[in-house]
Every structure is written in structure tokens, then in C-alpha cells.
Design a protein that fits this description.
heterodimer, A: 321 residues, two-stranded antiparallel sheet, two-stranded antiparallel ribbon, B: 495 residues, alpha/beta, 6-stranded mixed sheet, 17 helices, 20 strands
Chain lengths: 321, 495
């Protein structure tokens, strides 16, 4: 059984490696010129931008495994950049306090979704669709068509304990992915998340605190989206209401490409982060291919479908064995 | 002394009074059955015991102490193990994870101790002689084994009382024997059993005391030694079981309404030939996996045959879809009414009128006609429903099954195919469904019934066709056939 799990994540890694090899070949430069794709700077760039989706995708994977769905992370990311920017620029709070305020607002946003779903009994799709509008709207109301310019007050070429701030996103993403991968696979809470997503009635009959687990999933989703938002605010240097528009679909797609099933009960945090990297590489490389920019969304859409269909076929073959 | 005692338990769901003062006691060490028709209140009682539903009034006492159930964990903690029906498994988790779901063994720092759970699971499965690996995911485990995994789950923690809810529904006879051997061992070890079922032969085989529930109230508790299955049926139904009506035999010489000739669809069945004449009830008996369901599905156009022919009313036919089959006068009542038989998002009127509309290819629906049709079916089949606007999930299992039969009878079929028409329904509904089938046969309908319930086949069929491993192995006249004769055809070893 363990082998199957490994196989699923292994296949995501294999897709990522194949993708990198393909673009390395496709973008091979003419003799005497530098490779535009295979450079340390470019890989850092890929990691940096993937981490914005990737951190939120951890939360999305948890929600999807528990049998739900969260459409609000894009809006929560935007709201977090605005709250962090407001505290930092307008109120003059230190950065750590501004970031904490942003993350607290994200967790609160998740709690509102959880309340609507668990207590009021709304379907997750509807509840988070509504909540998405509320937070995006709140961000617009707070900013009033302006934006908070954090970059002016952040040190240029900023290093924290000798590491460039560019590495903030990737380090946070990998660190959180490790923590939540272990929590979901090796701890009772994680087993509960899988159980609730696999069969909610059975979970209830087994004495699993179903409501608490669902609540924790949405709160984490909000919280991790907020972490994405803080990273975005610092990296981009802005707190702005129209940031991260449409990200929710990329975030969900990352989790799904990484093996999460929208039927619930299946998926992994590590897979979701790998899924985010698959999209990150794709976006980065397409920009470098002349004329491919217009095909970006189309190719991303096709890739989602192809990977998930392949996964289905794989599952079906396993079931027959 | 009473180990587990229900005292004046009341529970209502809205206007429905599910339990109205149930009191009975289970003595330590005995095997106690709780029987009743679907809707008698058995499942509500179990949910109260499991702490999922709170009673409105009354209490449950364990060892004389009242239980204050807030969560299922509490029931488990106090030594009550519950074995629910197999659909309460986690398909996405391993067998070991299923057994320990909600009560995982944790090591230092709250980390799951997978090795310990796997070892304990292996020991439990070995005790039950179950050839399953602890690491297999539950979705790859057969229904029967899944049921036994639920028993293992209850036993994973010391339990003094083991409650089993319809544990044999999806088991074959051999697997039932295996389960009962395990239960026998547990009783010898001092575990008290509460067995909820409506399968009387099993109840009489396993239990010493039988409590009968009817309409949410306790009819009484009877000692097995002092009662009979017939008396229990009367207690459950609250009336005498209807007598079997004599029926004129179908005209033997009539041309077949349905002629199946050398039909094959490997690996499920091959070379099957069966005739069903107008007014005749043919029972198709066989063990699970003998290819009967697949045969009916193929006849009804849900799958394509590789070889062979069909004729309906003497006209050769080959259906590419269920719609074509319905238009030719066939009707098919599938086995799984929850999944294949009813639309739970549509009310009774829509459910009942749908096949007829499909058969006619109606574009616009005539509400008035639909309503009339639905009401007529409800009256004709005496479906217990308050109105045709009700949703099917408000009905008991037996009435849901009548609904599935009714929606197909509304198409005025000449050939009625039924797959396990009384599976999971209570005794009263079973008699009624048999009478519906007999009544339609008497009006000239040709009926082909797949059933794994041997007494049922013997009771209802004019002719019994036995299938084994995808082939017809023999045919017996219904009158005078014995269980032994049918079984020996169905279970003959392949050697």
C-alpha cells in the first residue's frame, strides 16, 4: 500500500522532471549563447513564483482531501496583502506584526467559510464562492483604488541571516509542505482528514470529530493562503486588491494535478506543491518561447486534463490488479 | 442480571415517532436478537446506543448505570462495540486504518504508530481467519470481507457487548458460517451479543432471546425455545401472513413472450437459452457470481451480447439501449434500488412516471396525467406514502422497492425482469411484492426473476432455471422442487 502512495507522488515527480528535460531541450540555445531556461536565477524565479500558489495549494489539498473545496484562496491572498500593507505602511507597524495581522485575517476568513459550511450547512462550493466575493470586495473597500507600497520601506537587496529575501517563498513553501505532509500522513488529525473525505457517515459513526476536522481544514486553507499573501506582499512589494485574481483555480488545479481527488479522501500535500511547480515551470518556459504567450492558458488547461486523465487510467489499472 | 437495558426510550424526527417507549433488557453473556420490519425503529435504537442520536426521553443503562452518550467515542470507551453495515467503511484507507479509525494507536508526540496498528490488525485478522493484508486499501476488499473487517474493528478494543446491524446482508452462506463461528467463539469468551436482523433463520440459529419491535414500540421479548419463526413473523407484521394464493398454471403450449437463444457475453455467461411464456413466472437461481444479473442486463440492452439471439413476442430483437428494450415491452427492476432503481432527488410522481415517459418518447410532460398515473400505481401496489409529492427517501425499504416495481409496471410491459426483488425488504413487503408479481403474471405478463433467496424462488416460480458459472445447469418445475435439488445444481463443484 505504501508503494502505491509513493507511486502516486513518484509519477508527479516524473512529470515534473520530464517537463524540465523537455524545455531544456526545446529551449537549447544556439552555439555560443547562454541557456535561458537552465540557470540558477531562472530556477529561483520559478520557485519564487510557484511558491505563491504552492503554499496556498497545501491548504487546498487538505480541504480537498477532507471532501470539500475552497474557492476563496485567491481573494484571501489579495486581502492579506492589503491588510499587511495597511498595517505596515499606513499604521507603521513593524513587518513581523503586519504579517501576523495578515495571517490572522486569513485564518479568520477560513473560520468564516468553516462556519458557513459546518454550522449553517451550506455546500462548500457555494459558501466559499460567496466568501470569495466578500474578501475580494473588502480588499477593494480598504484600498479605495489605491495600493500600499511596501517596497519603498523594505530594504533594497534585503538579506535575512545572509539569505536573499527572494528565497523567502521557496523556503516557506518547502518547510510548510514538509510539516503538513508529516501531519497528514503520520498524525491522528491527518488520518481523520482522510477518513472524513473517504466516508463522512462512517467517520461520524467511528467517533471522529467530523465538524472539528472540517473546520480545521478550512481554517488552515485560509491561513496558508494568507501566508502566500504575506510572501506575495513582500516579494512584490505591494498590497493591492486585484492581486492574485483567478489564483483559486490554479491553486485547486495544483492540488488536483498532485493527486487530490475532488471526490475526497485522496491526495497529498507534497503532491500539491509538486503540482504548483509543474505549473510554475510551464508558465516560465512558455514565456520564453516566441509567440507562445497567447497559448499559455490553453496549454495549462490541456495539461490539467491530460494529467488527471492519466491518473484515472492508472487508478483503474491498479483496481484491476 | 441485565447488562444492557433500554428504558422507555422515545425519539421523534419531526412528525415521525421513530421510537415510542422501547424497553427491554439484554442479560450478560446471552445472544439477543432485535428484529422488526424496516421502519420499526431498529436503526434509530442503534444510533442512540452509538451516541449519534439523542433520545427525547428515557435512558440506556449499562450495568445499571445510565449512559450519557454525547459522542460515539463514549459508547466505545464503555465497552460497546458496534458492527455497522459494510457501507460504513473508508474505501480510501487501508484495512488497518479502517480498524483503528478514530481510535488510532499513537506513539510519542502523538505520532501514529503504524507498525503497532499493522501488527494488531494482522493478529485480529488471523483470529478471524481472514486472508487479507492489513495494508490493502478497503476499496479492494470484497463486500463480505469488508463486513468481517467491521467485526475485527469492534474487537480491536475489548468489548463486552457487540452490536451487529444486519451483518449478513452481503454475505454468502459460507461467509455467514464463518461469521457465526467467530460469534460463537466470542460468546464462549463471555461477550454479549445484540444481533439486529430480519433474517429469521439466522436469528433462530444464533440467539437465545428475541425482542420484536413494531412501529417504534416493543412487542415483547421471547425465548427462542418457546417460539417459532411463524410466530415471530406474526409479531413483526402485526397480522397473519397472507396465504399463498393458488394460481392457474400458465398455458404450457403458448408461444414464449421472451425467448433467449444461446446468448453469450463472456466472461459472465455463455450459451444461455431460456423461454418465458406469457403468464409464467420463471425463477433464475444461482449463487452470487453465476452471471444472472449480467444476463438480465444484456437482455435489457444495457450491454451487448457477443453471440445469440433474443425474441420478444416472437419478433427477433436486438436492443442497443434500455430505451429500445422498454419500447419492445420489457421492464427491468434492478437489484440495487438505492443506486440503480430510484431518483432520490425527484418525488414519487416523477419517479413513477419517468419510465413511461421515456418509453413513449414524450417531449412535453402532462402533469395531470402523471399525477393520475402515479396515484394509480400507489393505490394498486398499496405503497405507503402520504402523497405523490413525497420524496422516496421518506419511504421504508419495502415501499421503495414497490416504487421501483411500480414505475416499470406503469409502462405496461409484456415481459418483467426482476433482479433480487425482495433483497433487504421486510417480511410484510416481501409477501406484498410476491403478490404483485403473481397478480401481473395472472394477467398474462411473463416474469423472469433472479433471486438468491431459495425459499422465495421455490415459493413463487412456476419453473426454476439454475445457473452456475455462467451456464444454465438445469431446469426444474416449480411445484415439487426441493431446496436440495436446486442447490445441488447451483453449487455442484466444477471438478
Amino acid at each position: 500500500m505504501k508503494r502505491f502512495w509513493h507511486a502516486r507522488e513518484f509519477s508527479t515527480v516524473a512529470i515534473l522532471v520530464a517537463e524540465v528535460l523537455f524545455f531544456t531541450w526545446y529551449l537549447w540555445p544556439e552555439a555560443g549563447r547562454d541557456h535561458s531556461f537552465v540557470t540558477k536565477e531562472n530556477f529561483l524565479l520559478i520557485f519564487k513564483y510557484s511558491s505563491i500558489y504552492g503554499i496556498a495549494a497545501i491548504g487546498a489539498a487538505i480541504v480537498i482531501i477532507s471532501g470539500g473545496v475552497d474557492l476563496s484562496p485567491g481573494a484571501v491572498i489579495a486581502l492579506t496583502t492589503v491588510v499587511t500593507g495597511y498595517c505596515f505602511v499606513q499604521l507603521g507597524w513593524p513587518l513581523w506584526a503586519s504579517a501576523s495581522a495578515g495571517i490572522a485575517v486569513g485564518a479568520l476568513a477560513g473560520l468564516v467559510s468553516a462556519w458557513l459550511i459546518v454550522r449553517v450547512g451550506l455546500p462548500a462550493f457555494i459558501a466559499t464562492l460567496g466568501v470569495m466575493g466578500i474578501w475580494r470586495g473588502t480588499a477593494f473597500i480598504v484600498t479605495q483604488a489605491r495600493f500600499f507600497d511596501l517596497s519603498a520601506q523594505l530594504p533594497a537587496n534585503w538579506h535575512v541571516v545572509g539569505v536573499s529575501i527572494d528565497w523567502l517563498g521557496p523556503i516557506v513553501m518547502i518547510g510548510l509542505a514538509g510539516v503538513f505532509q508529516i501531519l497528514t500522513t503520520q498524525y491522528q488529525w491527518g488520518r481523520g482528514v482522510f477518513a472524513v473525505g473517504g466516508n463522512e457517515t462512517a467517520a461520524l459513526f467511528s467517533g471522529i470529530p467530523v465538524n472539528r476536522i472540517k473546520t480545521s481544514a478550512y481554517v488552515l486553507s485560509g491561513l496558508l493562503a494568507a501566508v502566500s499573501g504575506v510572501v506575495l506582499a513582500i516579494v512584490q512589494g505591494q498590497g493591492k486588491a486585484d492581486l492574485a485574481t483567478g489564483y483559486e483555480l490554479d491553486i485547486i488545479a495544483s492540488a488536483v494535478v498532485g493527486g487530490a481527488s475532488l471526490a475526497g479522501g485522496r491526495g497529498s500535500v507534497a503532491g500539491a506543491v509538486l503540482g504548483a511547480l509543474i505549473f510554475g515551470v510551464l508558465r516560465n518556459a512558455l514565456v520564453q518561447i516566441p509567440g507562445a504567450t497567447f497559448y499559455d492558458r490553453l496549454i495549462v488547461g490541456v495539461v490539467v486534463i491530460v494529467i488527471v486523465v492519466m491518473d484515472q487510467l492508472l487508478l483503474r489499472r491498479q483496481a484491476k490488479l | 442480571m441485565a447488562l444492557l437495558e433500554f428504558h422507555d426510550v422515545h425519539k421523534s424526527f419531526g412528525a415521525v415517532r421513530a421510537l415510542r417507549g422501547v424497553s427491554f433488557a439484554v442479560t450478560a453473556g446471552e445472544a439477543h436478537a432485535c428484529i422488526g420490519e424496516n421502519g420499526a425503529g431498529k436503526s434509530t435504537l442503534l444510533k442512540i446506543l452509538a451516541g449519534i442520536v439523542r433520545p427525547d426521553r428515557g435512558e440506556v443503562r449499562l450495568n445499571g448505570e445510565p449512559l450519557h452518550f454525547n459522542r460515539p467515542r463514549e459508547a466505545l470507551a464503555r465497552g460497546i462495540g458496534m458492527v455497522f453495515q459494510e457501507r460504513l467503511a473508508f474505501p480510501n484507507l487501508t484495512v488497518a486504518a479502517n480498524i483503528f479509525a478514530g481510535r488510532e494507536i499513537v506513539g510519542r508526540g502523538g505520532r501514529l504508530d503504524e507498525a503497532a496498528m499493522r501488527a494488531r490488525t494482522r493478529a485480529l485478522l488471523d483470529d478471524l481467519h481472514l486472508p487479507i493484508a492489513p495494508d490493502v486499501r478497503m476499496e479492494h476488499v470484497s463486500a463480505a470481507h469488508a463486513q468481517l473487517v467491521q467485526v475485527a474493528r469492534a474487537l480491536a478494543f475489548d468489548c463486552r457487548v457487540l452490536v451487529l446491524d444486519e451483518p449478513t446482508t452481503s454475505l454468502t452462506d459460507g461467509e455467514v458460517d464463518q461469521l457465526f463461528r467467530v460469534l460463537g467463539k466470542l460468546r464462549a469468551a463471555g461477550v454479549t451479543l445484540l444481533f439486529v436482523s430480519h433474517r429469521l433463520p439466522e436469528v433462530f440459529r444464533l440467539c437465545d432471546q428475541i425482542t420484536v419491535l413494531r412501529d417504534g414500540a416493543c412487542v415483547g421479548t421471547f425465548a427462542r425455545a418457546g417460539t417459532t419463526p411463524d410466530a415471530m413473523v406474526r409479531a413483526m407484521v402485526g397480522r397473519e401472513p397472507p396465504e399463498r394464493r393458488a394460481r392457474p398454471a400458465a398455458a404450457a403450449g403458448a408461444a414464449p413472450a421472451l425467448a433467449i437463444r444461446r446468448l453469450s457475453r463472456r466472461p459472465w455467461f455463455q450459451d444461455v437459452s431460456i423461454d418465458v411464456r406469457p403468464g409464467e413466472i420463471v425463477g433464475l437461481f444461482g449463487l452470487v457470481g453465476s452471471g444472472r444479473t449480467e444476463l438480465l442486463e444484456t437482455v435489457f440492452g444495457l450491454a451487448r451480447a457477443e453471440a445469440g439471439t433474443l425474441a420478444v413476442g416472437g419478433t427477433p430483437a436486438s436492443f442497443r439501449s434500455a430505451r429500445e428494450a422498454a419500447r419492445a415491452g420489457l421492464a427491468f427492476v434492478p437489484e440495487d434500488r438505492q443506486r440503480l432503481g430510484l431518483f432520490f432527488n425527484l418525488n414519487l410522481r416523477h419517479n413513477l412516471a419517468l419510465p413511461r415517459a421515456v418509453k413513449r418518447g414524450a417531449i412535453r410532460l402532462d402533469e395531470r396525467e402523471e399525477a393520475g398515473l402515479a396515484q394509480a400505481q400507489i393505490d394498486r401496489l398499496s405503497i405507503r406514502a402520504t402523497s405523490i409529492a413525497q420524496m422516496p427517501d421518506a419511504l421504508s425499504g419495502g415501499n421503495q422497492q414497490k416504487l421501483v416495481v411500480g414505475k416499470w409496471l406503469a409502462t405496461d410491459p409484456t415481459v418483467l425482469l426482476l433482479d433480487e426483488p425482495t433483497k433487504g425488504v421486510d417480511v410484510g413487503a416481501k409477501f406484498e411484492i410476491h403478490n404483485i408479481i403473481r397478480g401481473n403474471a395472472a394477467r398474462g405478463m411473463a416474469c423472469l426473476i433472479v433471486s438468491s433467496d431459495l425459499p422465495e424462488v421455490l415459493a413463487i416460480a412456476d419453473r426454476i432455471v439454475v445457473m452456475r458459472e455462467g451456464r444454465v445447469r438445469g431446469e426444474l418445475p416449480g411445484a415439487g422442487a426441493t431446496e436440495e435439488a436446486v442447490m445441488s445444481l447451483a453449487a455442484h463443484s466444477a471438478s
